[in-house]
Design goal:
The chain is α+β, with helices and mostly antiparallel strands. It has one domain: HIT-like (HIT family, subunit A), CATH 3.30.428. It is built from two helices and five strands; from the N terminus they run αβββαββ. It starts with a helix and ends in a 9-residue tail after the last strand. It binds guanosine-5'-monophosphate and zinc ion. Guanosine-5'-monophosphate binds next to strand 2. The site of guanosine-5'-monophosphate (5GP) has 14 residues, from strand 2.
Length: 112
Amino acid sequence: MDCIFCKIIKGEIPSKKVYEDEMIFAFHDINPEAKVHVLVIPKAHIPSMDGVTEENSDYVRHIFEKIPQIAREAGTTGGYRVISNCGPDAAQSVPHLHFHILGGEELPAHIV
Ligand code: 5GP
Ligand code: ZN
């Protein structure tokens, strides 16, 4: 499958890894929008939030259980923001479910 995040999981595209276990992979965003900008992805190819089902939601649960540890190890100290863009209106650019962790500095006020 021609998915850049699946290739990052397999090591076919290099990345700066923050965390990995049997279900999920976390790495620094190539184009950071904050001092800390990490992406957390499931090791299953789920295209977006719209692809989350009863069969694969264990990946999402596991991601959220690990986000505090990943955010801490990536260097956040004063909190962080978690975002998942889904579909064209949200400008999702990579069609493999991912959660942005943004922090490491005071973030701008946000639409949400
Ligand atoms: P989206 O816009 O889909 O919510 O977020 C996709 C993110 O993936 C963007 O922030 C973009 O910088 C990041 N990205 C795209 N290609 C790569 C890559 O090859 N390596 C890494 N580390 N990040 C990537
Ligand atoms: Zn994928």
